[in-house]
UniProtKB/TrEMBL annotation:
The keyword Membrane does not apply. Residues 64-180 form the RGS domain. One of its GO terms (biological process) is negative regulation of signal transduction. It holds the Pfam family RGS. PANTHER family: REGULATOR OF G PROTEIN SIGNALING, REGULATOR OF G-PROTEIN SIGNALING 5. It comes from the Eukaryota. Regulates G protein-coupled receptor signaling cascades, including signaling downstream of the N-formylpeptide chemoattractant receptors and leukotriene receptors. Inhibits B cell chemotaxis. Inhibits signal transduction by increasing the GTPase activity of G protein alpha subunits, thereby driving them into their inactive GDP-bound form. The lineage of its organism: Eukaryota, Metazoa, Chordata, Craniata, Vertebrata. This is RGS domain-containing protein. InterPro entries: RGS, RGS_sf, RGS_subdom1/3, RGS_subdomain_2.
């Protein structure tokens, strides 16, 4: 396999696996056309289960990414928007870090830290976030003895990236514009 496959979104890889399976079926049982139907993944639902914010609350999201992330409806809407763009790894990393910070048990903290590192930080991770080598090195060093602050530097870099890049796109999205109308 080429190194570039790990960078593809998970949904693309799953679809490719499905196609490969169906092609294998074709080679073995060409008379069964029904086996060859490959369903296309449905678009993510737009329904959000958190209480809808007031227009004033939603307008405050323009001022601060933190206000958006602290609002359960805002976080859900932001995640949904990023998933629709196949770029949800940053917000998922941020959420994983927030959950990690709440962990009390050292054993659970160590397991969660390893999972976060493998999923988001290490080179060619399935949902690798875009951070520099220095930040990766500091984060790896912090994981020798996991603490609630182990991912702080990486989380701050991703927060800044979302604030600069993802938030402005979200604020121009139909999802957000419909909410403030």
């Amino acid at each position: 396999m080429c190194k570039g496959l790990a960078a593809l979104p998970h949904t693309c890889l799953e679809r490719a696996k499905g196609i490969k399976t169906k092609l294998g079926v074709l080679l073995q049982k060409p008379e069964s056309a029904f086996d060859l139907i490959i369903p296309y993944p449905e678009k993510p639902e737009k329904t959000i289960k958190a209480p809808k914010p007031s227009v004033e609350e939603a307008l405050q999201w323009r001022d601060s990414l933190d206000k958006l992330l602290d609002n359960s409806y805002g976080l859900t809407a932001f995640r949904s928007f990023l998933k629709s763009e196949f770029s949800e790894e940053n917000v998922e990393f941020w959420v994983a870090c927030e959950d990690y910070k709440k962990t009390k048990s050292p054993a659970k903290m160590s397991l969660k830290a390893q999972k976060i590192y493998e999923e988001f930080i290490q080179t060619e991770a399935p949902r690798e976030v875009n951070i520099d080598h220095f930040t990766k090195a500091v984060t790896l060093k912090n994981l020798v003895e996991p603490s609630p602050t182990s991912f702080d530097l990486a989380q701050k870099k991703i927060h800044a990236l979302m604030e600069k890049d993802s938030l402005p796109r979200f604020l121009r999205s139909d999802l957000y514009l419909e909410l403030i109308e």
